[in-house]
Amino acid sequence: MAALNIKKGSTSHSAYDLRDSHSDVERSHTLAVIVENEPGVLARVIGLFSGRGYNIDSLTVAEIDHKGHRSRITIVTRGTEAVIEQIKAQLGRIVPVHEVHDLTVEGAAVERELALFKVAATGEKRVESLRLADIFRANVVDSTLESFVFEITGTSEKIDAFAELMRPLGLVDVARTGVAALARGV
């Protein structure tokens, strides 16, 4: 079995170069909302934004369990910290929300790394590894009937957490770039 390697100088599109945040400054936020699937959920979420004059730059929906009971709605919006807190509170009032996460990373610069994970899994372990990859926003870059190779970009803590969760599911090999300031949009 060939070892996983990352070419020197590899970068990923999901690394960020962020400016200092101030509570009264309007900036882009990415919210991940885990909701119960029921009729009208998406319409109510969109209605909250349009009815209150909040901006939606983009919105995506993905099922996060194989039985279709829950979905993740990812919303990119703009606002001050206070406005984002209002949005998060109001979401919980209009739809059956399990969790709301602000995926926007604070700080002047974010040190991130790229990692490849090879997971040999079949059956339920295969389904669970795909579910975790979706939650962690890992991309499947290679797949066979017995294994996957996932690519993930993030902080060292995020990659460590992903590795810990993948170990019991059949983690075979890991390759990491090490912490670096990765360029955005490459």
From TrEMBL:
Q: Which domain of life is it from?
A: Bacteria
In Gene Ontology terms, what is one molecular function of this protein? acetolactate synthase activity
UniProt cross-references to Pfam families, sorted A to Z: ACT_AHAS_ss, ALS_ss_C
Q: Under the cellular component aspect of Gene Ontology, which terms does the record hold?
A: cytosol
- EC numbers on record: 2.2.1.6
Pathway the protein contributes to: Amino-acid biosynthesis; L-valine biosynthesis; L-valine from pyruvate: step 1/4; Amino-acid biosynthesis; L-isoleucine biosynthesis; L-isoleucine from 2-oxobutanoate: step 1/4
Q: Could you tell me what reaction this enzyme catalyses? A: 2 pyruvate + H(+) = (2S)-2-acetolactate + CO2
The EC category is transferase
Q: Which CDD domains match?
A: ACT_AHAS
Positions of region (Disordered)? 1-21
Its keywords, alphabetically, are: Amino-acid biosynthesis, Branched-chain amino acid biosynthesis, Transferase
Q: One GO biological process from the UniProt record?
A: L-valine biosynthetic process
| Domain ACT: from-to ranges | 30-105
Identify the InterPro entries for this entry: Acetalactate_synth_ssu, Acetolactate_synth/TF_NikR_C, Acetolactate_synth_ssu_C, ACT-like_dom_sf, ACT_dom, AHAS_ACT, AHAS_small-like_ACT
Q: What does this protein do?
A: Catalyzes the conversion of 2 pyruvate molecules into acetolactate in the first common step of the biosynthetic pathway of the branched-amino acids such as leucine, isoleucine, and valine.
The family annotation for this protein states:
Belongs to the acetolactate synthase small subunit family.
How this chain assembles, per its entry, is: Dimer of large and small chains.
What NCBIfam families does the entry give? acolac_sm, PRK11895.1
Q: Identify this protein by name.
A: Acetolactate synthase small subunit
Q: Which organism is it from?
A: Rhodobacter maris
Give the classification, highest ranks.
Answer: Bacteria, Pseudomonadati, Pseudomonadota, Alphaproteobacteria, Rhodobacterales
